[in-house]
Design a protein that fits this description.
heterodimer, A: Rossmann fold, Dna Ligase, domain 1, 35% helix, B: 3-stranded antiparallel beta sheet, 0% helix
């Protein structure tokens, strides 16, 4: 099939640098993506949009999750799939998927009340990191160093947070020596990786961490691809910790942000994404 | 060329500007969304919501 005849939908809300680079990459490949703004989308559970494949690039996780389910229900192939979005969008589901595939990750506990969460934290041992099961950009993460802090944060979450902040996701704190790794997986290949370095224990670039090139060693590639497959495959970014016991997967991201990683790695990530989507659409 | 809805400065659009794109006003630093290109319409970009990002 000729690329120009492909109907590739691009689901978006705000057009960020990433979406703009992707559009440019599709243009270079001879494809004019069909822009689908999630703020204007109306789906009726019956009508299939006239596209061969949908690339999901919504900034809102909840919109992406629901839209993908409906697009798939209408018979549209989605990249990434609803299953991938569901697993990656919920840390609890990600942890379960990684565990089921035997992939190294920090120890984790889940509890549903202040009392049981405190017990879980004490059993795991300080420090721990409390994370919202659904959340991003390093927001609302709490490093809990002692019982006083645990009691305070748990009470605040219970009293001030909505109900999903009382699904307590508790992760063992991994001493990562000021950096973690974000790797980029497309299909069955780990195409690039960066170190994210910060003086702060949170190393998200959205929180000011700086990006530098990380060589894609066989160890990085192997665990990244395994993590990608565990969540359902496609186009994902994998966050890795370098622990004394080797690499561990922290999180897997399904609408990956890559603006800081193109010059850093020398890999044309949007072009690789566009190529993958076009090849998938031709299948 | 559009007008910043915050400070009324002129905002220049790139030749490859796309509706929905986020721009920054060089005068006041506000994040803006290009709502439409013809005619040019700019609005303050929405604030980050709880389920934004990865």
């Amino acid at each position: 099939m000729n690329s120009a005849s492909l109907k590739i939908g691009l689901l978006h809300s705000l057009i960020r640098k990433e979406e703009k680079l992707l559009i440019e990459a599709f243009h270079k490949a001879g494809v004019e993506p069909i822009m689908m703004d999630d703020r204007k989308l109306i789906m009726d559970f019956h009508t299939a949009p006239a596209i061969d494949v949908l690339v999901e690039r919504s900034i809102n996780h909840s919109r992406a999750l629901h839209a993908l389910r409906l697009f798939e229900s209408a018979g549209v192939r989605c990249i990434n799939s609803h299953k991938v979005a569901q697993i990656c969008g919920d840390k609890l589901l990600t942890t379960a998927a990684l565990k089921e595939h035997g992939i190294a990750q920090p120890q984790c506990r889940v509890a549903f009340t202040e009392e049981s969460a405190l017990q879980a934290i004490e059993e795991l041992g300080y420090p721990v990191v409390l994370k919202p099961a659904v959340g991003s950009w390093g927001r609302l993460l709490s490093k809990i160093n002692d019982r006083d802090a645990a009691e305070t944060v748990l009470e605040h979450k219970t009293v001030l947070g909505s109900y999903h902040h009382s699904i307590f996701y508790i992760q063992q704190y991994i001493e990562k020596k000021g950096r973690d790794i974000r790797s980029f997986v497309i299909g069955d290949e780990c195409i690039a990786a960066i170190y994210r370095t910060s003086d702060h224990w949170i190393t998200n670039t959205a929180r000011g961490a700086t990006a530098s090139k990380c060589e894609v060693t066989s160890e990085v590639a192997e665990i990244s691809i395994a993590a990608a497959m565990a969540v359902g495959g496609g186009i994902v970014a994998v966050d890795l910790f370098e622990s004394d016991a080797g690499l561990m997967v922290n999180e897997v991201n399904y609408t990956m942000e890559f603006r800081n990683s193109i010059d850093t790695t020398g890999v044309d990530i949007p072009a690789r994404v566009a190529d993958y989507v076009i090849n998938q659409a031709k299948k | 060329m559009g007008e910043c809805p915050i400070c009324a400065a002129e905002v220049e659009l790139a030749v490859d500007a796309i509706a929905g794109e986020v721009l920054v006003c060089e005068d006041c630093g506000a994040e803006l969304e290009l709502k439409s290109i013809d005619p040019v319409a700019l609005a303050e970009a929405p604030s980050a919501e709880e389920d934004w990002g990865q």
